[in-house]
């Protein structure tokens, strides 16, 4: 049987140069906007906060707001 992770939120551990999948899924949720981010498109995250961001602009806003 083929197991698909379509529609499931992945749980990741964010590291400086990548991330490790802790629970399988096909996307994560942007910490600011709440929009889904496909794992293949995930480029921006905060290691200290363990948060994902949908774009560089959103990541910058999140980091300057703190």
UniProtKB/TrEMBL annotation:
<dbReference type="InterPro" id="IPR018661">
    <property type="entry name" value="DUF2093"/>
</dbReference>
<dbReference type="Pfam" id="PF09866">
    <property type="entry name" value="DUF2093"/>
</dbReference>
<protein>
    <submittedName>
        <fullName>DUF2093 domain-containing protein</fullName>
    </submittedName>
</protein>
């Amino acid at each position: 049987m083929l197991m698909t992770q379509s529609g499931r939120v992945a749980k990741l551990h964010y590291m400086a140069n990548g991330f490790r999948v802790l629970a399988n899924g096909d996307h994560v949720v942007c910490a600011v906007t709440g929009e889904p981010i496909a794992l293949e498109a995930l480029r921006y995250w905060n290691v200290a906060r363990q948060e994902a961001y949908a774009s560089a602009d959103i990541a910058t806003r999140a980091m300057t707001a703190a």
